């Protein structure tokens, strides 16, 4: 599996930031590529819960995230799959001066492989995933700043 991670400092307390992160009703405003949340089932955001969301036409398609671990005020790990990748995505929250450091990590495996897959992954896919994680965190931080009147 390949691993990509991004971090962003977000204004607020860990409790505030965590509550906003888990608010699936607001994901469309900050999750990169997400067009709409189609379904939330189970005890979201706790283990066993599943969120299914749909990307826009040029995106990932149908994405399923199933919670496998959660430690309140620390973070969550989900198993994630879409037509192109499967893997584990984790979010971690840590208090830092000026707010909360949010770290988003995706360890992924490509669903379809060929002899050129490692090169394509290294040159294009990994960069696109890293950019998407960074965009998601930047939008999340911007929304928090706007909400707080900063």
Describe it.
This protein is an alpha+beta fold and 150 residues long. The chain has one domain: Alpha-D-Glucose-1,6-Bisphosphate, Chain A, domain 4 (2-Layer Sandwich), CATH 3.30.530.20. Helix content is 27%, strand content 43%. The protein is built from two helices and seven strands; from the N terminus they run E-H-E-E-E-E-E-E-H. Strands 1-7-6-5-4-3-2 form a seven-stranded antiparallel β-sheet, with helices on one face. The longest helix has 32 residues.
Oligomer status: single chain
The CATH superfamily title: START domain
Rounded Rg:
15 Å
Low-confidence stretches: none
Average pLDDT number: 91
CATH class: Alpha Beta
Q: Indicate the CATH topology.
A: Alpha-D-Glucose-1,6-Bisphosphate, Chain A, domain 4
The count of domains is: 1
Please outline the helices and strands:
Elements: E1 2-10, H1 14-21, E2 34-41, E3 50-55, E4 62-71, E5 75-81, E6 85-96, E7 99-110, H2 117-148
Tell me briefly what this model is.
With 150 residues, the chain is α+β, with helices and mostly antiparallel strands. The protein is built from 2 helices and 7 strands, in the order βαββββββα. The chain starts with a strand and ends with a helix.
Write out key terms for the chains shown.
150 residues; alpha+beta; Alpha-D-Glucose-1,6-Bisphosphate, Chain A, domain 4; 7-stranded antiparallel sheet; 2 helices; globular
């Amino acid at each position: 599996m390949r691993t990509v991670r991004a971090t962003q400092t977000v204004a607020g307390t860990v409790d505030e930031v965590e509550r906003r992160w888990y608010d699936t009703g607001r994901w469309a405003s900050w999750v990169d590529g997400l067009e709409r949340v189609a379904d939330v089932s189970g005890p979201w955001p706790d283990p066993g819960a599943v969120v299914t969301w749909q990307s826009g036409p040029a995106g990932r398609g149908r994405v399923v995230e199933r919670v496998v671990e959660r430690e309140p005020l620390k973070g969550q790990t989900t198993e994630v799959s879409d037509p192109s990748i499967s893997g584990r995505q984790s979010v971690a929250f840590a208090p830092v001066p000026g707010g909360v450091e949010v770290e988003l990590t995706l360890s992924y495996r490509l669903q379809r492989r060929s002899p050129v897959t490692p090169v394509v992954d290294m040159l294009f896919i990994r960069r696109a995933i890293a950019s998407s994680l960074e965009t998601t965190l930047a939008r999340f931080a911007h929304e928090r700043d706007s909400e707080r009147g900063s």
